[in-house]
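U., I forgot to send this yesterday:
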Amino acid sequence: MIAGGIRLGIVDDHPTIAAGVLAGLAGLVPLAPGFRHTTTVDELIASGETYDVVILDIRLQDGSDPPDNARRLTARGWKVLLLTQVRQPALIGRCMRAGALGIVGKHEDLAVVAEAVVAVASGQDYVNADWAAALAAVAGDRAPALAPREDEVLRLYAAGLPMKSVARRLGVGEETVKEYLTRIRRKYLDAGRPARTKTDLYIRAVEDGLLPPTDT
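Result:
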């Protein structure tokens, strides 16, 4: 166990849930004084503090990319435990590949969350049998390797923005966006998952965790 207690941060834009988790953990896990809750990754990084474990809500209302959030936190040497109420194994798999060590659901008992925090603080993976089965089910999925810019174009376009708006948002020309979309469609076709229409692209983006399902 870490001497002096675990320095804990939590990034979650649901204040009631965050407060409940922090209060509950205080009685179950040896925490260092001064743990912090923020609603965005930017705010946590800007705090100037260091953390042993960061509990990261996968879906944040600022629209940030979940795997990128995990990557930014782990790049600072902070261990990341994912927290979610959405069952999107493909997205969770991307976050784990980005450096997160564990995953717990918001529906789970605080004792489970506490166990996960202690394990992740020690550098151990924490994926219970239920999550492991879900992740294993998508491990063999044929997800194309999209470049970061292609990810961005797909997320914006599939979410409903017209090509002109995507170009403006990214500071590029419409022809450039068309080229990206052509590459994206080709990669999905090569992966055996055609995405000929905008609706197809939306479906692929949801399947691969780039966009949330419509019921979340």
